Predict the structure.
Amino acid sequence: ETAAPLVEVTGLTKRYGDTLAVDGVDLTVLPGEVYGFLGPNGAGKTTTLRILTGLIAPTSGSVRVLGGSPGQADVLGRTGSMIESPAFYPYLSGLDNLRLLAEYAEVPRERIDEVLDLVDLADRAKDRFSTYSLGMKQRLGVAAALLKDPELVILDEPTNGLDPAGMRDMRRLIRELGSEGRTVLLSSHLLGEVQQICDRVGIINSGRMVAEHNVEDLRGEQELVVRAAPRET
Ligand code: ATP
């Protein structure tokens, strides 16, 4: 018996004028898996993730998240996401930024220390956000996404723009989330990255889901994947 999917998308379409940003996407994320949504720039990843987090409405298709509709209060409360580059107050510390969010979300204070540890920012928590590297800023974004101890974590290109050390730290963090049993849906345009950190991969190109693979099976499909997404250099 398989557990109910946390994300179940069928025939998802999003149109912007003449542009079909998302064109009939089917996507299923199972409990406990780290799912990689792989595709080149403009493929439709961000649009899909924005729909899943209730930021925008689909044009058509069926979208179930945690058994409900995206944007429902109950669903939002059980989902943590980082879709745009996270907006924090630059002159406040990482800790104070999280305190503000925690207060707003009615999250107990102890949780702040837990998430700061998890994202490896405990020793920089009292420094101003503006002094953080991009990798640290992104990790604080993940910390914010984790505050409510969500069942589902959705991260849009969490390593985008990071230097090698920042990428390594972010990937390690995502693997940690996976190994503690959390369900993660992340997007990436790097094949090597999803091979490193994901259990299953869906490949999207020009708004269409081209293929879906268990990561172990990806090796044999190198050709297909490489055509759909540029390899990491
Ligand atoms: P990236 O990695 O660059 O974010 P992506 O895979 O996330 O790429 P989307 O951002 O979802 O791709 O974009 C898919 C297509 O939809 C692109 O052609 C984009 O130009 C278009 N698009 C996205 N948002 C809008 C919008 N608000 N209005 C018009 N077109 C849009």
